[in-house]
Each structure stands twice: as structure tokens, then as C-alpha cells.
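Input sequence (267 aa), recorded before submission:
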Amino acid sequence: MVPGIDMAGKVISSEDKRYQAGDAVVLTGWGVGENHWGGMAQRARLKADWLVPLPKGLDSKKAMMVGTAGFTAMLCVQALLDGDVKPEDGEVLVTGASGGVGSVAVTLLAQLGYKVAAVTGRVEQNGPLLEKLGASRIIDRTEFEEPARPLEKQVWAGAVDTVGSKVLAKVLAQMDYNSVVAACGLAGGFDLPTTVMPFILRNVRLQGVDSVMCPTEKRIAAWEKLVELLPESYFEQACTEVALEQAPQYAEDITNGQVTGRVVIKL
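Predicted structure, C-alpha cell format:
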């Protein structure tokens, strides 16, 4: 299996009338790199339904600086917008903020005018970058690792959670009345040790976010919104480019929580 769940490039040839040779496209998800040969190659044969035309304002490298992580972050932010969470409602929390999804979510929310609290396990190392990306304050992850009470003090108008498990349970217990949590990750586990009390007594909405099988229309809208919102400074600050032979080492580093932001493989 050739891995790589993201790829961007130009069409060489197409049997589908929607695409012509030379068209710039991007692909994320659909099981590519998991059960269909993926992006860590110079060429790939793909279903046209899996592709999205590359929006104006992005080249292949920038598209991969966004990738599945940034695309997922945009879907999470859109979930908060759809839930009518406004900047004036209060602080928005982002867990796992130093990761790919979290760092883009921080950037997007800041660009939209939200006051963002970023949670990271490496405050000294990642705090300065997260502040550059737009976080108004940095919170140590240890504050969210203690078991949550069913309800705690109301703090957050909205939240993007990339961690799951007890961290998500803690977040839910601290949400404001009529708030929204967009949950897209399970790095901390797929269990959820909580109660129904935040949902019933505080009208909290938990919105699951899936980027793998996301419909094409929603994908196109998200990519266009990403181009509109991401500042040039994001691409300068939050991305590292590596060669293919470096990918195994960086994969291990990412797994061990030693990488901040996005890593792009240059083929």
C-alpha cells in the first residue's frame, strides 16, 4: 500500500469529462492511502469523484500545507458558524491546538474575529507560535486531564475538540448555555466519560465532524472559504517541508507529539 491521505497536482489524463489534462486538483480523504494507493508517489490513478478543483489563490504546495488537517479545521469552524456562535458570545476553545487541525482552527477563528483559547501539552515550546497564529491565551493541557464533574463553571461559547475522551468530557462540562462543540478527533481515546447533563441542562450541542466522506459540494465550499480566510503568514509560520525519505521519521515524531503545525512531503 502506498500511504498518503492527501495529494495535490495536475491531471495527466482523464476519462471523466469534468477534468482535462493540466487541471489543478486536490484530494483529501475517501480512504485514499488507507485502502487505495495514496499520495506519497509521483503519480496516482483516482476516481474523479474524489477530486476537488484547486481554488484560485492556492498552488499545490499551499494546498498540502492545508491538507486534511486544514480542511477538517474549516469544517469544524463552519460547524460553529452554523450553530450561530458569534465572536461577541465569548471565548472559543481549541484543544490539541499545536497539531495540524488545531493550529489551522486557531488561525481561522482568529481571522473571523473570535477570541481563541488554545490548549497544548507544550506551552513553552508551542505558545509563541500559537499566539502568532492568533490565540489570545494558551492553556496547559493538564487542566483538562482531571476527571470532569457532570457540570462545571460555564466558560466557553464554542469549542473545537481534536482529542476526545476525558478532554472532550471536560470541555462539555464547561460549555456556556446554548453553545456548540465541534468534535473531530480521538487522539486521546474514543470513549466519552460524560453525562447527558450538559446537553439537557445547558442546551449544549455536540457536532461530529467527518472529513473523509464529506460530500463534494461541502468540500468545494470549505476549500474556497480556506483560501478566503488563511493569511499568508500561516503558510510562512506553521509548515515544514520534507523529502519523501524523511517521512517515516516525521511520522514517528508526529505520533510522539513532537511536531507543531503541518508537514508537507515534496516528491
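Checked by second reader. DSSP finds eight helices and eleven strands in the chain.
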